[in-house]
Amino acid sequence: MADLTGSGNIKLFLHYRYDLFTAENCLPGYSAALNNTPFVPDKIRTIFIDGLPQSTLTFLHIVRIPVELVLYWLFLHQAVPELMTFSGRNFDILAGITAPFVAYYGLQKQLMGRKTLITWNLVALALLFNIVIHAVLSAPFAFQQLAFDQPNIAVLYFPFSWLPGFIVPVVLFAHLVSVRQLLKYEK
Hints:
By secondary structure, the chain is an all-alpha fold. Helices cover 59% and strands 0% of the residues.
């Protein structure tokens, strides 16, 4: 039996493994379009983003309600500062509470104008930036500027690390796509 643990064999395996997943092999014919973006051509990416339903993207913001309740619970257990909760400087829960109404009445029933929907997205985006800035500036790092008595330590531990690593980017993506669609398809 051959010994496959030698460093030469591992390098050979990694080399072939890399070759299997190059852009030319995964998406034949799209290698020219992939020069600017690592994996997805511009046209496919645009079709995907523009095809996402706005009502679904808006309903997604309901996730902000349990997130804010968890942040408050973490504050009660001294894992985040009060300024990161709705009893402090974080009013992000308002975006979560209003999201189902905006999605239903504004997008499904079409009772709200395009400017109102854009305004709601921009205000909710500002609320998101508000909490992200407060969270970063109260984290126990060299650049900490807020909440020295109770730093934001919760996001350093699983499962709370999902908040900055997954939930915030998804919510940000949903806002940006919604604003893009509302601006692109003005009628």
